[in-house]
Amino acid sequence: MSSSAPPPRWTRPAQFLVYLVPVGDIPPDVFASYARLLQRHSDLPLRSLTRPGGYAAELSPFRSLDWAGGGVLRFRFVSAAERVDACDGEDVQASRRVVGVLGVCHSPSLTLHGGLRAAYEQFEASVRRFPGLLLHKLFAFEHAFEDATAAECEGLADLVMFPVHHELQGTGESTVSLHLQVVMDTLAVNALMALESAIRSATASAAASTPRVGDLASVLLDVNVEPQQQQTQQSASSPLVLSRDVKADAAFTASPTSRATGPSLTSIPSPLAAGVAALDPRNRRRKRQLARREKLLGDYSVLVSCISDALDHYMVAVEMLREEERRSGGAPGDALWLAAALEGYVFCLYSEAQDKFSTELVEKASEAVALYAKAGTVELESLLIENLGWYYAAVAMATLRRASTSGEAKVLESLWTKRLLWDVLERGLMLFPELQPQRQVEFLIQTSRMLETVGHRRRVALFLHEAASLLLARNAPSVDSQLRLLLSPSSVTKGSQRQRDLEAALLLERMAAERLGIQGKNARRDALPWEVTTQYRRSRRKKAPAPDNCEDARRRVPRRNVLSSAAGDVSMAAQVAWTNGYQLHGCK
Questions:
Q1: Which residues form the Trs120/TRAPPC9 N-terminal domain (predicted)?
Q2: Do 465 and 509 form a contact (C-beta atoms < 8 A)?
């Protein structure tokens, strides 16, 4: 981390989610190398893609799609070989729905009986659980084409074979990377055309009937997403709350389809017919579905870099969803969809504002955070808080670089933005006990990066230390009762993940020590070594003479770990770094 490095851009809503699946017992290191190669081709400018022949722009659901403009199709590749943590309600956002699966096969490592065809069948079986895919292909790397027979590859429509790797002198490319560039360009165009076709199909059938269950359009525009707590309450309460009058609701829900418990619709005078029709549960459900679908159309517009189209969809969706949320009395499902629509609208404002402060952006983002809290989706709330924090960090740094503002005004505006940053981070820390363990570590690391960007180095060290402590705690041989309240049983890692966690913890502790001005090798011979144990340090402190005053005591006694105190017995380097850090730099 470096304060001179620009803050990362908020791009997740504009990335298609694609899983990478290892096929055919590919070695982990080989799979990781191909995953890194694919990451190099994750951003594909629209101007570099070949527009399909016969493409009719007037038929496209994306009115502002410009093949010669500055738009980019982005893919977020996630390895299915690692544990993929899902968060409650994430399918409310199109960018978090899996729209592609790429199998990665290393032909020389194939051990399956049947060779490439058996690997292909294994891949096809793995993608059946993802019905709404815009693309799925099996990449067979290092394949010897002279050994491939017509019978072996016959009928394997989703197989893409890559040549043996050879470096191309003077280009910095290889035969594999060039082939992959062509393949990814083709897949991106095919995915875009499939998305357009699905949306046209759904739009054409919207006025007539619901799309057939199981087809691509129905999966991509599925609006039946509710928070888990809402799903558990479905049997106890109706999701269609028509008013806040308990008696009226009770009369309605007692027999929603019976004509004997109330006046017949045909006996109502015509001036009131429209109003009663609006209260019909079928109409309410229909309006809810249309509002949520409008929100998803905004999401897909963002994914294809049509920000102006997305703004139009989001504004319509927010207005409709706000009405649904009001009518339902703040039902978690309606609150979730309204929050997601507001977040999409905020992302569009962010794309246009860049590093300039926008009052509307902050207001809409704050409303979305509150609605996520009402829906009980703490992971989505935490992610939005993180993105809002990065926005504040970028605004603070851009303010200091602005030449049109005087020096004093720059400092005051930057300090004000930093205060907003710290306020939103405090809101994120309030959610900490409810987050999943991996998300806890991620949030602490991202928080430290934000604070590094604005120059708060001592706070950076604190959060790096806390992240390392959590990694060490979930890999400890024994976890005490206090820590069990923080960590779930599934968070205790084993095997290769344990090794990665420990390596990451050591790196984070070293980074924290650097932020406190502590070198890896202390020049003092009597200084405690890096590997000294906590118990040994405690015995040293017991033998030390009593301090003359409270100030000395503060310097000699390290501060307690505020988020995971039980991890102190596990963390070795951290306690040394913390003790020496406060001795060297004093207390604040």
A1: 10-349
A2: yes
pLDDT confidence of 421, banded at 50, 70, 90? very high
Q: Are 320 and 341 in contact (CB under 8 A)?
A: no
Q: In the structure encoding, which two tokens stand for residue 226, read together?
A: 């509710």
More confident of the two residues 125 and 574: 125
Helix (H) or strand (E) holding 102: strand 98-106
Placement of tokens 């690692």 in the chain:
82
Length of the chain, in residues = 588
Spatial contact of 132 and 202, defined as CB atoms under 8 Å apart? no
Question: Is 0.70 surpassed by the pTM of this model?
Answer: yes
Would you give the DSSP letter of residue 156?
A: -
The residue written with tokens 């527009």 in the block is 51
Specify the pLDDT at position 213. Answer: 55
Instruction: Quote the CA–CA distance of 344 and 324 in Å, as a whole number.
Output: 18
Give the CA angle between residues 418, 455, 447 to the nearest 5°. Answer: 70
Q: Using CB atoms within 10 Å of the CB of residue 42, give its burial: 0 to 12 exposed, 13 to 18 middle, 19+ buried.
A: middle
The closest of 56, 60, 98, 61 to 80, measured between CA atoms, is 98
Token readout for 91 is 């399918």
Amino acid at residue number 513: A
CB neighbours of residue 182 within 10 Å:
9
Tokens of 520: 């890896």
Task: Please state, in angstroms and rounded to a whole number, the distance separating the CA atoms of residues 386 and 245.
Answer: 39
- In this structure, the number of other CB atoms found within 10 A of the CB of residue 279 comes to 14
Are 455 and 3 in contact by the 8 Å Cβ rule? The answer is yes
All domains in the chain, ordered by first residue: 12-209 (3.40.50), 279-376 (no CATH)
Q: Where are the alpha helices (DSSP H) in 332-406?
A: 332-353, 359-375, 378-401
